């Protein structure tokens, strides 16, 4: 009787060990098949609930939205034409990013949204962005709609008096959308053109 019980116990233990081993192997195989998350130089904000769209005017008076650029990555920056350093640096870097991307540069649309519509006329905006690259697009709205758009993108800006005029303090992030129009990255102003280009290349050519 004892030997029968021992045999049954041994059989049960073997079944439990086999089941446990099978479970561990299944988990290991699942782990091997999962894709490692893509690493970016910038801030991965995929799935963000803000910055989903805009409705603004181009210098030619046409209305533009994010859907107009489907099939291309979009790099978007808020600024103003009389900015002494941050904005020209951002646009010069964007031109270098486009060059570093090679053929993929044709699949990148750079957009500059003014936070100073009181001074930035359509003509000024067109000339300003074209000085960095003819393909760059400037967009604008009236004062109230500009404020609403900036809020939608969590962009801060404020007038700062300077003598008889004023300058603007503002957020210096560049946002990147993938070709399906999804917000994916926030790139910091202190990053290099190479950092930007590496991240945008991954957005354009996901593995």
TrEMBL record:
Q: Which UniProt keywords apply?
A: Copper
Give one Pfam family, short name only.
SCO1-SenC
Taking the record's annotation, the residue ranges forming a coiled coil are none
Domain of life according to the entry: Bacteria
Thioredoxin domain segment(s)? 45-205
InterPro entries assigned = SCO1/SenC, Thioredoxin-like_sf, Thioredoxin_domain
Keyword Thylakoid, does the record have it?
A: no
Q: Which family does it belong to?
A: Belongs to the SCO1/2 family.
Instruction: State the protein's name.
Output: SCO family protein
- The scientific name of the source species is Acidovorax lacteus
């Amino acid at each position: 009787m004892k030997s029968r019980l021992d045999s049954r116990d041994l059989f049960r233990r073997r079944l439990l060990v086999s089941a446990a081993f099978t479970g561990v192997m299944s988990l290991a195989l699942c782990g091997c098949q999962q894709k490692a998350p893509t690493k970016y130089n910038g801030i991965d904000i995929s799935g963000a609930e803000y910055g989903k769209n805009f409705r603004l005017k181009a210098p030619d008076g046409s209305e533009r939205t994010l859907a107009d650029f489907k099939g291309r990555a979009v790099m978007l920056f808020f600024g103003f034409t009389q900015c002494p350093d941050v904005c020209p640096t951002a646009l010069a870097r964007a031109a270098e990013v486009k060059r570093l991307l090679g053929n993929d540069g044709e699949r990148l649309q750079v957009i500059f949204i003014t936070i100073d519509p009181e001074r930035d006329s359509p003509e000024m905006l067109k000339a300003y962005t074209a000085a960095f690259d003819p393909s760059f697009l400037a967009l604008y709205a009236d004062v109230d709609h500009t404020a609403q758009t900036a809020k939608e993108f969590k962009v801060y800006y404020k007038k700062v008096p300077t003598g008889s005029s004023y300058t603007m303090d503002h957020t210096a992030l560049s946002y990147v959308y993938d070709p399906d129009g999804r917000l994916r990255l926030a790139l910091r102003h202190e990053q290099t053109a190479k950092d930007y280009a590496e991240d945008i290349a991954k957005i354009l050519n996901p593995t």
